[in-house]
Specification:
Blueprint (H helix, E strand, L loop, with lengths): L1 H4 L2 H14 L4 E17 L2 E19 L2 E7 L4 H17 L28 H17 L3 E17 L4 E17 L2 E9 L7 H14 L9 E7 L1 H13 L4 H5 L20 E3 L21 E5 L2 E2 L6 H7 L21 E3 L6 H5 L4 E15 L4 E14 L2 E5 L3 E6 H4 L3 E4 L4 E4 L5 E4 L2 E11 L3
Parallel strand pairs: 7-12
Antiparallel strand pairs: 1-2, 1-4, 2-3, 4-5, 5-6, 7-19, 8-9, 8-11, 9-10, 12-13, 13-14, 13-15, 15-19, 16-19, 17-18
Helix pairs in contact: 2-3, 4-5
Length: 448
């Protein structure tokens, strides 16, 4: 569909047209094209099939010290020319930009993904759904889930000679199995369909649905928890949004403010932002067209680095790490490809030695309570189990937690060797292993 809607060459021609007609002192053109295929299924049949394409052209201009931006979802030369006119008009009507204004970035050197689009494949989708629903049926479970794929083309060009375009791809399979009052969930994420193991996903979801029946409550309080990668992702993504950006440190809203070079997390915790890790997804350049570079953020528990855009890099006296959001932006640079270094522990190793704890498959409704300690709240879901004397003994009802992520990552007592790409219900991607954390605080129980 990219070829029918807006391929790379057409996107480039639209950007060139915007640059050609712009009277501004500086002009930047960004083109984003998203092709999405989604299949929702339940029991033995699909309930929703969706294929859609979205495209947007954004134009940012500078005119005599003023800056303006406009965008359009109509991807024709005429619409792009009108968008340039609106951006220039917006610039003229806004106050002059205060302080020193960096010129737009010039030509750059890139290491691109160069991926091929994930093509719609109805037969492969049908076979995959059939395999997962059959596995559920064989154990008396009802299945519900999604399969999705995305192709995202992004192009940035400006009047100073910067030009970059690349295609990123993402695929996901998510399955929930239900049996009586039990539910189990599993998922797979990757850059392409062939990298996802639906057999493993179905077996995992079914096993948890069968074994989570008849859940009973446990008292709220502090427990040793074993968090599977998806649960870890639901927590760590908040550090990406509100923790590792240089502007957040500068304005004091980050847990790293005033602590660079000091130990802030456990000595066994190392976190990087590395878009070139082969398990990651996402574009290898930022909203200004600057290449992303790997950054060691936490090194053995020590606050070792931050992500920068060109503006914060100027203020800190360093180089941009390529983490700008589309400009102008109030948020500053944001981490985009967090990788939490794994250990070597197997699942049974993480359980061993736990006298009484909780195994968590997934968190949902996770939200931030307070940013400077990354205090979060949320609930367990789709497979929560009591661990006693090193073994999973029974299912427990879901529980709500209220917990500082900073405190939790100071009490990591085990790191799994199962690091993989994971996400959360609110979006974003990280590469994380399972974690065993001592003293994780559950604030209340539920009736389900």
């Amino acid at each position: 569909m990219l070829s029918r809607m807006l391929d790379r060459e057409r996107a480039k021609r639209l950007a060139e047209e915007a640059l050609r007609v712009s009277p501004a002192d500086e002009t930047e053109v960004s083109v984003a094209v998203l092709e999405q295929e989604l299949n929702r299924f339940t029991a033995d049949h699909p309930v929703q099939n969706l294929v859609r394409g979205l495209a947007r052209v954004s134009v940012r201009v500078r005119v005599d010290g003023h800056e303006g931006k406009a965008s359009t979802g109509t991807v024709t030369p005429e619409a792009v020319r009108r968008t340039v006119e609106r951006a220039v008009l917006a610039a003229k009507r806004t106050p002059r930009v205060a302080g020193e204004v960096l010129p737009m970035a010039g030509q750059q050197q890139y290491r691109l993904r160069g991926r091929s689009p994930v093509a719609p494949d109805p037969r492969a989708t049908a076979d995959s759904v059939a395999a997962m629903t059959s596995a559920c049926r064989a154990e008396g479970c009802t299945a519900a889930g999604i399969q999705s794929s995305e192709n995202e083309l992004r192009l940035v060009m400006n009047s100073r000679g910067l030009e970059v375009a690349d295609l990123d791809t993402r695929t996901e399979v998510s399955l929930t199995a239900f049996k009586d009052d039990g539910a189990g969930w599993s998922t797979g994420l990757a850059s392409g369909r062939g990298e996802i193991d639906e057999t493993r996903i179905a077996a995992d979801a079914v096993r948890k649905a069968v074994t989570s029946r008849g859940a009973r409550p446990v008292d709220p309080g502090a427990y040793t928890v074993i968090l599977e990668p998806s649960a870890v992702a639901s927590l760590l993504l908040f550090a990406a949004y509100k923790g590792f950006g240089a502007q957040q440190v500068e304005d004091g809203s980050s847990f790293l403010a005033g602590k660079l070079g000091r130990r802030v997390l456990g000595e066994n915790v190392t976190i990087s932002d590395d878009v070139h890790d082969p398990r990651t997804v996402g574009h290898t350049f930022d909203g200004e067209g600057v290449p992303r570079v790997p950054v060691r953020l936490i090194d053995g528990g020590v606050a070792a680095g931050l992500v920068h855009d060109r503006d914060t890099a100027r203020r800190f006296g360093c180089a941009s790490t390529g983490h700008a959001t589309p400009q102008p932006s109030a948020s500053g640079p944001l981490a985009a490809n967090l990788v939490l270094s794994p250990g070597a522990a197997r699942a049974e190793d993480l359980l061993r030695g736990v006298d009484r704890g909780i195994l968590v498959t997934q968190f949902h409704y996770t939200n931030m309570v307070e940013p400077t300690q990354l205090t979060l709240t949320g609930m367990t879901r789709n497979g929560t189990f009591l661990v006693e004397r090193g073994e999973v003994t029974r299912p427990v009802r879901n529980m709500r937690f209220t917990q500082s992520l900073v405190d939790a990552l100071n009490r990591v007592s085990g790191l799994g060797g199962d690091a993989r790409l994971a996400s959360a219900l609110f979006g974003g991607y990280v590469v994380v292993p399972s974690l065993r954390i001592d003293g994780f605080r559950f604030s209340s129980g539920t009736d389900f």
